[in-house]
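A sample follows:
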Amino acid sequence: MLTAVLALGGIFLAAYLTLYHYGYVGSLACGTGGCEKVQGSNWSKFLGQPVALWGVGYYLSVFVVATAGALGSLTEQRWPSVVLVALNGWGVIFSGYLTWLEIVKIDAICRYCVGSAAVVLVLFVLSVLDLRSFRPD
């Protein structure tokens, strides 16, 4: 259930950045100016959509699978754990790519992005541990 709670926090974080991207949040409470630079960069979109919006979709997917896997008969099935490892593995790869962009291409660090990358890494570790400890009844 910790995975679902962390994913819910990620949803709120990514939603905040998405609202900023669309102009519903005047300025980001970042303190360094790096967040605005990252959010306004050429790399702030992926396949035509804000990266933060993709983050909302990612975290929502993790939340749904983690919650479903913790309820009823799905707790005895392995597939939710496998799906979480795959989702969070992709999340680690994509977050690593975005962090590389921040350091190498954008020359600015967004605290929210770093926080999101840390959450993704923790989600991945938790999902791997969950899969490794899976023992069907």
Notes: The mean pLDDT is 92.
